[in-house]
Amino acid sequence: MKQERLMQVLLAPQVSEKATWVADKRNQVVFRVAADAVKPEIKAAVELLFKVEVESVRVLNVKDKIKRFRQARGVRRGWKKAFVSLKAGQEINFVEGGNA
Q1: Domain 3-90 class?
Q2: What is the DSSP string of the chain?
Q3: Mean pLDDT, to the nearest integer, of 76-91?
Q4: Which of 38, 57, 59, 91 is 20 to 30 A distant from 79 in Cα terms?
Q5: pLDDT at 92
Q6: How far from 53 is each of 16, 48, 74, 75, 78, CA to CA, in Å?
């Protein structure tokens, strides 16, 4: 896989209550990823950027959400989420800007 492509796969870490709970209980990290990203690309991108070993990757598509305000109607676009399981002893610390 090309390194240029791997740098574009991960868009941002997903910070939420569920992401924090999953990080504590299951040693997983949640990322917002490119819509056309596949599991091997996500695994390679995390290993390249954060210098950690990845055990597995699970991918979830978040559907579009229709929003209404009076007569106006809009759409919040869907996106793709990846749950990355790290091997035992591995950790990613976003506060310090990388691996710990």
Answers
A1: alpha beta
A2: --HHHHHHHEEEE--SHHHHHHHHHH-EEEEEE-TT--HHHHHHHHHHHH---EEEEEEEEEPPEEEEETTEEEEEPPEEEEEEEEPTT--EETTTTEE-
A3: 92
A4: 91
A5: 83
A6: 23, 9, 41, 37, 29
